[in-house]
Design goal:
Layout lengths: L1 H24 L6 H15 L3 E6 L5 H17 L2 E6 L4 H13 L4 E4 L8 H9 L3 E5 L10 E5 L1 H15 L3 E7 L5 H20 L2 E8 L5 H14 L6 E3 L3 H13 L15 H9 L5 E3 L2 H16 L8 E4 L4 E7 L2 E3 L4 H6 L11
Parallel strand pairs: 1-2, 1-3, 3-4, 4-5, 5-11, 6-7, 6-8
Antiparallel strand pairs: 9-12, 10-11
């Protein structure tokens, strides 16, 4: 027994030593590489989507509100935005977008100052694998990935229909926005859709049809001053494409004692426009709820960044391509409904009108 026990002890010792040697000789798996790899993957997953946004100007209240809305929605949805302002300069907009592309943005949202010139930006973005959303203004002659806008033809039609409802006969002046803005082209076309039959029938005479470069109110003021002079103040209505040009037209009318006597349309539901509607010098403004359009743009950009499809029901041809389009409906605002549409909806604080 003793002898057997001794052998057993030596056998157990041998097994223990062998096991220990084997354990020491085998490479021990370290957690560092797996941890590093996991950290890299986590960092990649957690990296926020970055959206580049290029806006044409901050000179108009409408575009100031667009910028604020983009930033608010982006924060709410947990994405990063880098916003650049072109200050109505196509070359500057291209340079700024080149910078956004070099920063590695995931998607680019552009409201072009010049729709034709911005085609170069689309090409550069696509070369970098970045999709482009054309916001409110269509980028021409390029394979834009998505277009978000309001129904611009209907906007022009609504403006002209209202003016004719107030002035069914007589001399009518038509102002248009910047010729490089595709939306401005559509506003004018929509207005002419309504005005032309009345022109053909002889009910009205179109005494002015002028574009306003860069949407500048100073351009509108000059055009309306000139037409009032040429026609000895014999003007029955003015179709103005937005509130800035409408305000300038009303300024020209006021100088001749005609403010409030000649119906004037507008667009964008700016604070000053609502004030003029209340005081009776501007008849209407078209309300395009940029809160909804801006949210749709950010949500679409997030889907693009995640390689998800964006559903659309319409398209616009930009000269070379049919661009998938998301379109929002406009609303006509006048003295009877401004409280409901603009104030009670939360778009504008009533205190701003004081």
């Amino acid at each position: 027994m003793k002898k057997m026990s001794k052998k057993l002890v030596w056998l157990l010792l041998l097994v223990m030593v062998t096991t220990l040697f084997t354990a020491c000789s085998e490479p021990t798996a370290t957690s560092a590489p797996a941890s590093n790899e996991s950290t890299e993957v986590a960092a990649e997953v957690e990296k926020p989507i970055k959206i580049g946004i290029s806006l044409p100007t901050q000179r108009e209240e409408r575009w100031v509100l667009d910028k604020e809305n983009f930033e608010r929605v982006a924060e709410e949805l947990g994405v990063e935005v880098a916003v650049q302002i072109a200050d109505n300069d196509a070359a500057r907009q291209q340079s700024q977008c080149e910078n956004l592309i070099s920063q590695g943005v995931d998607v680019l949202i552009i409201a072009p100052h010049d729709g034709a010139a911005a085609a170069n930006i689309v090409n550069m973005a696509h070369e970098a694998g970045i999709k482009v959303i054309s916001y409110d203004r269509l980028i021409m002659n390029s394979p834009v990935d998505l277009y978000l806008t309001f129904d611009s033809l209907i906007v022009g039609e609504m403006q002209a229909e209202w003016v004719l409802s107030q002035a069914p006969t007589g001399n009518i002046a038509l102002l248009a926005g910047d010729p490089g803005d595709y939306a401005a082209v559509l506003y004018r076309q929509g207005a002419l859709n309504v005005l032309q039959p009345k022109i053909d029938s002889g009910d009205i005479t179109l005494v002015l049809d002028q574009e306003c470069k860069d949407w500048q109110p100073s351009e509108a003021l000059r055009h309306i001053e000139n037409v009032l002079t040429v026609h000895n103040n014999d003007i029955q209505g003015i179709v103005a494409p937005n509130d800035g040009t409408a305000g300038a037209a009303i300024q020209a009318l006021a100088a001749q004692g005609l403010a409030g006597k000649v119906p004037v349309s507008g667009q964008d539901a700016e604070v000053d426009a609502i004030k003029r509607i209340i005081e009776g010098t501007q008849g209407i403004t078209i309300f395009n709820d940029i809160r909804d359009l801006g949210r749709a743009a950010i949500e679409s950009a997030i889907k693009f960044a995640n390689n998800e499809p964006v559903e659309t029901k319409k398209s616009y041809n930009n000269g070379t391509h049919d661009i998938p389009t998301i379109e929002a409906p406009p609303a006509l605002v006048d003295i009877n409904n401004y409280l409901e549409l603009v104030i009670e909806s939360g778009f504008m604080d009533e205190s701003a009108l004081q």
